[in-house]
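ARCHIVE CARD
CATEGORY: sequence design from structure
SOURCE FIELD: tokenized fold
FIELD CONTENT:
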């Protein structure tokens, strides 16, 4: 398929055109990056924090033990309190909702989420974070090609993680968990946060690539009318990512740099052609600036 192909995502084996070497990204003018697990290895920090919360909690409740598979199936990529709700539902546990202001020691949905958040922030402060070098190389190539870039993260900690990784100034738009909550946007697996980022970049969704590693995030990409869904396999598995709707799957994003450079060259060729009678056409990678920027919380 090409990046323009908006046909329903199939579950067939990848065709020749969906392998990174043959990928056509010439219709893509914006990249919407998930953060945790795509740009930074913080999906693992989230995963450990959830485990620090739910391992003792499930034991105390006599429920089946918490495993990494639970993280991928019920929590990965979702907004904080949705993750709590999904995991509790998987064990048939009903907890009171409580309030966002609940203490981390409270056994409410919000208290449990806040307990996990304390664990996440403690690890972040202790260990810091370094972006994946291959993802930064891809980001460099995408920006050099004139495409626009946004971060779309369920996490309310996204601004802190971007800052810790030295990436805070690289994105025109950040739609994080706080922005979504303020705007009443449903989180992943719904496509709304990605759609909002495309809108803020001033691009149609069909001209945007969704870049995701989580089940809920790939589902969100497949549920919208995006130009392409790029899956990064950080543990979900290639087959699962493909079945969920990823159009191309990579282990590291730098595998796609040649495709980005080919797309930029195609666009430059188009740009040097004489304008068609009756008006010029906008090149695929027209770097005209997006003025919209949603400030993170
Ligand atoms: O940092 P917050 O706001 O608790 O966000 C939670 C979620 O943020 C996502 O980005 C992670 O991929 C999730 O796995 C995590 O649970």
């Amino acid at each position: 398929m090409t990046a323009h192909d908006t046909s329903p995502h199939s579950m067939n084996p990848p065709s020749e055109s969906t392998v990174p070497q043959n990928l056509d990204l010439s219709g893509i003018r914006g990249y919407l990056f998930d953060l945790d697990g795509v740009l930074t290895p913080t999906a693992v920090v989230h995963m450990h924090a959830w485990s620090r919360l739910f391992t003792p909690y499930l034991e105390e409740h006599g429920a089946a033990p918490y495993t990494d598979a639970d993280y991928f199936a019920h929590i990965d990529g979702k907004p904080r309190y949705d993750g709590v709700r999904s995991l509790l539902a998987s064990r048939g546990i009903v907890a009171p909702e409580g309030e966002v202001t609940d203490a981390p020691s409270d056994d409410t949905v919000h208290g449990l989420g806040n307990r996990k958040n304390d664990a996440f922030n403690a690890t972040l402060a202790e260990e810091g974070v370094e972006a994946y070098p291959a993802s930064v190389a891809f980001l460099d190539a995408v920006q050099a090609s004139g495409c626009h870039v946004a971060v779309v993260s369920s996490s309310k900690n996204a601004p802190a993680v971007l800052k810790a990784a030295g990436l805070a100034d690289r994105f025109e738009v950040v739609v994080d968990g706080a922005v979504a909550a303020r705007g009443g946007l449903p989180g992943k697996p719904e496509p709304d946060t990605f759609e909002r980022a495309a809108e803020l970049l001033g691009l149609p969704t069909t001209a945007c690539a969704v870049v995701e590693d989580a089940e809920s995030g790939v589902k969100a990409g497949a549920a919208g009318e995006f130009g392409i869904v790029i899956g990064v396999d950080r543990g979900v598995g290639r087959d699962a990512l493909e079945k969920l709707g990823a159009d191309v799957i990579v282990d590291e994003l730098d595998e796609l740099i040649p495709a980005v450079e080919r797309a930029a060259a195609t666009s430059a060729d188009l740009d040097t052609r004489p304008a068609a009678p009756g008006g010029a056409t906008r090149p695929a990678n027209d770097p005209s600036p997006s003025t919209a920027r949603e400030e993170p919380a």
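CARD ANNOTATION: Strands lie at 30-33, 148-152, 173-175, 208-212, 228-232, 248-250. The chain has two domains: 16-41+130-272, 42-127.
SHELF: design records, drawer C
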